[in-house]
Design goal:
By secondary structure, this protein is an all-alpha fold. It has a domain at about 50-90. The chain is built from four helices and no strands. It starts with about 30 loop residues before the first helix and ends with a helix. The mean pLDDT is about 85. It comes from marine sediment metagenome.
Length: about 90
Amino acid sequence: MQPSKRPFLLLIRDGWGHNPDPQAFAGNAICLAKTPTEDWLLATYPHVLIKTSGEAVGLPAGTMGNSEVGHQNIGAGRIVDQEVMRISRT
């Protein structure tokens, strides 16, 4: 794979989750807000949703992640086992 020479932006927005359940919108300020810039970015540029809990971020299945775990995995470019996983494997 050839490296891209085009500009690239990695944008991490703590607190901006995604819930596909329309019933969850009622108490979600971001879903209720007018977000023209957000809407334009999503319509114009490629984007991806990432998993943020459990084995996808090096935690036991069903365990909620946090920003530290997420940033560690994104920065490493791979799944980084967290301490609880390393301990349970020894």
